[in-house]
Structure prediction request, 284 residues.
Amino acid sequence: MENLFIHSEEVKKELPNESEKFKDIDVDVKKLLADGYKQQKALDFCTQQYVLPQLEKIQDNLAICEKALNEFMYSKKVAFPRFFFVSSADLLDILSNGNNPSKVMIHMPKIISAMDTLTLKEQAHSERPFALSMKACVGVETVKFTSDLQLLGKVESYLQDVLDIMRSSLKDIAKESLKQFSELPKEDWIKRDPAQVTLLINLCSWVINCEQAFRDAAKDSDAVKKCWAAQIDALKGLIMMVQGKLDKPMRQKIMCLITMDAHSRDILQNLYTLKVCREDDFNW
Prediction:
């Protein structure tokens, strides 16, 4: 509580009365501790007439401060709901270091799933840093934000900004990846984007190809069969890739693609067997 009520400017601003009360508590506790250190013997210290009433007074005032602090923490959780899933001890540490984003980074895996930390660009003259990219908890993958984000304002505000730029960056990367999918050889395309985007766009392209085959079926009765054959060829290409030399993250990404493409192949085989040739067919 000392970090928040004495060292956090935000808490002192939000809870001025309780912060002043806590200062008095802090003084009283230190006087008690100093007297205890001076007495050395617990029995001599505890049997002094002023000790029990003073401890009871401190406890009552601490309860008031704690109640105000819990209400303050709840308001932060409402403002940034992911705080509901963070332990009280971690949330207290996040709030007490809110003005120093670099100290909040240790808690990022608890706030955003699979994220290890943000890459920060520190500024001179005690200005807030810029967030440039995010690093994954697993592997060595780093995803660069499509625009730099300065971590300004209260901690719950700039963490929401991080979520927003994370989503918008992945959306922008996915748009570009979908465009590049049809322009680059698949082996080169697989290596250029984050794993999450690669898996997403690979599945999107499969859906686009399937629905195009349904439309082509009006003129070509073998359109779905050809799409199925193309899916098998794509799967073979991925299998050839994992037979070569790859680093661990790339191998893991391609193994995920193989799993998904094998499932997509089986779906296409079933659609061809059932003679599905319309986008609004129930089986599709």
